[in-house]
Amino acid sequence: MKGIELPVLIKDILGQRPPRGIENRGSEIRHAAVLVPLFESHGAYHVLLTKRTNRVDAHKGQISFPGGAVDEGDRSFRETALREAHEEIGLRPEDVTILGQTDDARTLASNFVIHPFVGLIPYPYPFKISAEEVKKLIEVPFGVFLPDTSRDRTMPVEYEGKTYKSVAYPYDGEVIWGATARIMENLLEILGEKIDLPA
Q: Which domains does the chain have, with CATH numbers?
């Protein structure tokens, strides 16, 4: 990491640039926010993801960040991300240190504009999973998302009878794809050459 801890690096870089937004065209666009939870375990940083159940309205069975649609009572996208993380995995807002916001992302099928926030969380943690929304938690080493010049990260992914061409990260029998993969790809692009982790 060239002598700089990952959370410090992320906070410094994200704090120096405004996130790139996506223009809101048409009333059919819906807004959502997600938390990209980062934690340290056994000397390495990880990203916490969820595998969604088949009972949720959208993105059934997909790997995603804790998050969801903006509610009328939410005062900001940041508040949406923290509220949803609390509802889905029992992560209390006061236990999250927000490091910054990355660029907006679009979902491929459900017409959401997603506003991602990177947050540092304590670990281990007494997570309380919403059985309605989350099937399981997945702890992915941050190095899995590092750029790999030896292979193409884009691959076809079949989902609900359709084939999508998406950036994808296979890990531990799962495939991280769609908006979740693009959010991580965007974060790594923002960090650029300043990050140096073993893959």
A: 6-21+28-146+179-191 (3.90.79.10)
